[in-house]
Each structure stands twice: as C-alpha cells, then as structure tokens.
C-alpha cells in the first residue's frame, strides 16, 4: 500500500469553534489513512512573513549567484515549498474573511509562488511545476455563498493553485455554515469522512 503524505494548511484566526479547522483536520486524516502522514502548517499560530524588498531581490537573483543573506531571506520560503513538494494531497482550511482569503493565507501563497521553483515561463506561457497533486479546499463562511459573485476566495485559490501546477482542486462547501440545518451540516461532515483521492 502506498503511504500518502498530506499537507494540512490552516488559516483561521480562531483556534476553537472554527469550522474550517474542524473539517480540514478530519479530511487530512482520512486522506492520509492509517499508514500515511500529515504535516500541519498553522498560519495563524506561526504566521509566515510578508515578502519584502530583500526577499524579492533574492528571488530574482539566480540561485548560484545569491549571497548568504539572500539565501537566508529565502530559507523560510524554501521550507514551505519543500512541504508542498513532499505532499500528495494539500488540504487548505479556507475561512472567508470580508469576501476573500485571510491575509495569513495570502502571505503563504506569496511565499510559495516562486518562478523557476513552483512555476516557470515557457514560450507557450507559464507552466506549473507542482504536478500530480490534489488540493482540497475546505471553504467556510458566515454569509458568503460558495462561488457567488461576492466569493473572491474560491475562484482565486483555484486559479493560483492551477498556476503552480495543482489542477486537481476539490472543494468542500461549508459556506454559510450557521444558516444550514443540522442535516445539511451532517451531510458535509459525511462528505469529509468519506473523501477519497482518485487513483
């Protein structure tokens, strides 16, 4: 049996009572199975830094020409990219804040979207390099319906993940959670409990 490795990314500022954390935690364990492993990247507990001028300069410098200071500036990003590269499945808990993703999740994306590392430019346009992976978005919100005209989170994440090569993106719809009946909530939990990655 193939041992699956799952990267779980949490972005909710809430440690307790978070729907995205609850569901993504269960989903990650189900996908890993008894033989697999889960790496947790909690962006609220340990925020990744915003990119700055030093980071940008280091990223634009060819790897073999970087100074020690530039290598240090990219060390955190390198670690985040390595987590993605090692994962078979990526489970992202996505609370919708003010119609979009939390700033902590955007900072993570800025750190892992790296030209020549997770994508490259070719004569036919950009090509994502993180291929053969599946991403699962556990999207939770108070009042924003999934893929509605005011949902700027889900379409963005589908696009940016596809840009780095992760085109198999699956969505667990936990939007407008507080407005759902218990039966509807239980149906979402059942979807999470029975989730399986395609062979």
TrEMBL record:
Spell out the SUPFAM superfamilies in the cross-references: Flavoproteins (SSF52218)
Q: How is the cofactor bound?
A: Binds 1 FMN per subunit.
Its recorded reaction(s) are: N,N-dimethyl-1,4-phenylenediamine + anthranilate + 2 NAD(+) = 2-(4-dimethylaminophenyl)diazenylbenzoate + 2 NADH + 2 H(+); 2 a quinone + NADH + H(+) = 2 a 1,4-benzosemiquinone + NAD(+)
Q: Where do the Flavodoxin-like fold domain residues begin and end?
A: 5-193
* Binding-site positions, FMN: 12, 18-20
Identify the cofactor(s).
Answer: FMN
Q: Which family does it belong to?
A: Belongs to the azoreductase type 1 family.
Subunit annotation: Homodimer.
Query: This protein is called what?
Result: FMN dependent NADH:quinone oxidoreductase
């Amino acid at each position: 049996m193939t041992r699956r490795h799952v990267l779980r990314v949490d972005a909710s500022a809430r440690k307790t009572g978070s729907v995205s954390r609850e569901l993504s935690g269960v989903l990650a364990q189900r996908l890993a199975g008894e033989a697999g492993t889960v790496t947790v990247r909690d962006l609220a507990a340990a925020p990744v830094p915003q990119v700055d001028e030093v980071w940008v300069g280091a990223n634009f410098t060819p790897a073999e020409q970087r100074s020690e200071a530039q290598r240090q500036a990219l060390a955190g990003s390198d670690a985040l990219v390595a987590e993605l590269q090692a994962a078979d499945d990526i489970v992202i808990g996505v609370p919708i804040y003010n119609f979009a993703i939390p700033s902590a999740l955007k900072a993570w994306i800025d750190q892992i979207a790296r030209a020549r590392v997770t994508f490259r430019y070719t004569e036919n346009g950009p090509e994502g390099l993180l291929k053969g992976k599946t991403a699962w978005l556990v999207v939770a919100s108070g009042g924003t319906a999934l893929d509605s005209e005011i949902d700027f989170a889900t379409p963005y994440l589908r696009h940016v993940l596809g840009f780095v090569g992760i085109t198999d993106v699956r969505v667990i719809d936990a939007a407008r959670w507080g407005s759902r009946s218990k039966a509807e909530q239980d149906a979402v939990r059942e979807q999470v409990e029975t989730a399986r990655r395609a062979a």
